[in-house]
Design the sequence.
């Protein structure tokens, strides 16, 4: 899977993932008014609006970037209509040729984890009395995974990944301030996140592709550049998924050391900074109706920032 | 919330939670044949069968135990029909007077985590142009939560819990062998799970009820009795949710130290051992049609085991 991802990064020259994390406050009036005025406000109508919004963003950026990352929490909050919107968004993005990272942060053990892996990376296979079916439910190309429960759970994702040509990004060092409470604890001369990084490298050892990167990536927040540098050393063959760009404060110059010398090795996520760009000063001229074009312009600016300041030359 | 839970534990005399983790292989032929023969096999028909199965189990145990714990992974695997089944199962169990623990193991940061908290513990509130709605989507009385990202995420669950009279169980020490990979790491004289336990005690300090237990519980696996003892000391006012009984190898005598001197402080989960009891030697006389009565008998045996061997005298 990761060879395919790197091909797409090279083709676009943009190691970027657009976060599809819709919120009520991001919706432009041209969508909100059209849907909520006749239909009122409900989880159904909001899910419908989110899908319209996502489609316009996907259409506006699909030739610029290799990937999108829907955050499932935003959809779960809308219940069943939200999960349908998530499913439709994943399909729409895949059909547009994008690689889809499901930001689901799942994690469990044994057969329970196998169920998550089937739901989010594989397919659901059911059989009874000689009849059987195989259905894709919420499957994306990659899923984010929480490591706290250890290898038992990770292995189920690896198995589903192998069978379905998909991969995972394991939470290693997250971008939020309190991530440090446990992740930064000293365990005999190294930090917990370093130990997790070593395991990520190990978990990926069986799936290193022709560019030298495995199907087991790592989530490494953009907000701690010195940590990014250290983790790059510990996980040379690991693709980093980097949250925290833009709205959370990091910019291209902070991300130089998240990339390897080959100019590859990281995919930087921006959500609000792109999908709600039309609300920001620099993109106000696009107006409400131009929200998708504002997203496109913000994506182009992000590509420029990464190329000029993070030494990305893929 | 936890006062209400303890009232229910005292009333039933059973510190037990029945895990509603349906699988194809658990379904009795009396349900499978009735549904799959006419309808064939699909995520829809399996979700329908799971709901029939759950309802029968709930009806058979609802006067014996205070709580059930559906494992959302089993439902997510069935996609949208599965999530509908999860939602209906939660409602059916609540309507039966049971406390419902959503085993969702969610965890994220900031507004993303707030969305999870609204989905699984609270309600979804939406407004636009003077119109608004408030809907309950997947909300349970408790949700299991992953601590790896620290307080940022936990605080959103605590906020939703406070507003909606609900609580959480934070993963501290899980029952699986590889849980030790990170959870057992030495961090300057104590284990990582001990540090997490200290934070759990702190997170719960604002919600201690009249029995002396807070709304922030801990998941503590049954498979490591000496760890249970240590964690009981570190978290005297924390309700333990204890997986690993029965199928994973632990029995009543292993759980003595998971309880406080008041005979309270833990809720022991059993899933397969109860819901698929009719497939086990000791309950074979119930047969396929008696699967729910076998679950009832297995629950009664579990209560007896805990009372006699774990010194439970609630």
Sequence:
């Amino acid at each position: 899977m990761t060879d395919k991802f790197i091909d797409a990064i090279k083709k676009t020259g943009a190691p970027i993932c657009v976060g599809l994390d819709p919120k009520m406050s991001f919706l432009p009036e041209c969508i909100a008014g059209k849907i909520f005025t006749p239909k009122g406000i409900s989880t159904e109508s909001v899910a419908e609006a989110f899908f319209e919004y996502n489609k316009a963003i996907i259409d506006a950026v699909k030739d610029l970037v290799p990937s999108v990352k829907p955050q499932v929490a935003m959809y779960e909050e809308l219940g069943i209509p939200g999960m349908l919107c998530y499913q439709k968004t994943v399909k729409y993005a895949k059909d547009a040729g994008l690689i889809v990272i499901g930001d689901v942060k799942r994690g469990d053990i044994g057969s329970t984890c196998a169920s998550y892996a089937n739901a989010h990376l594989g397919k659901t296979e059911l059989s009874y009395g000689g009849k059987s079916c195989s259905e894709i439910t919420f499957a994306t190309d990659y899923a984010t995974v929480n490591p706290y429960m250890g290898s038992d759970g990770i292995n189920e994702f690896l198995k589903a990944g192998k069978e379905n040509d998909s991969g995972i990004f394991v939470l290693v060092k997250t971008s939020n301030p309190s991530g440090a409470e446990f992740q930064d604890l000293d365990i005999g001369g190294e930090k917990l996140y370093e130990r997790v990084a070593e395991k990520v490298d190990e978990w990926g050892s069986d799936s290193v592709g022709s560019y030298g990167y495995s199907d087991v990536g790592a989530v490494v927040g953009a907000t701690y550049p010195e940590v990014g540098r250290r983790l790059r050393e510990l996980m040379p063959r690991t693709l980093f998924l980097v949250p925290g760009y833009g709205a959370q404060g990091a910019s291209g110059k902070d991300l130089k050391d998240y990339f390897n010398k080959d100019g590859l090795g990281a995919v930087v996520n921006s959500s609000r900074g792109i999908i709600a760009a039309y609300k920001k000063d620099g993109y106000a001229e696009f107006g409400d109706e131009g929200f998708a074009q504002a997203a496109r312009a913000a994506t182009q600016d992000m590509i420029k920032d990464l190329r000029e300041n993070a030494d990305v030359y893929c």
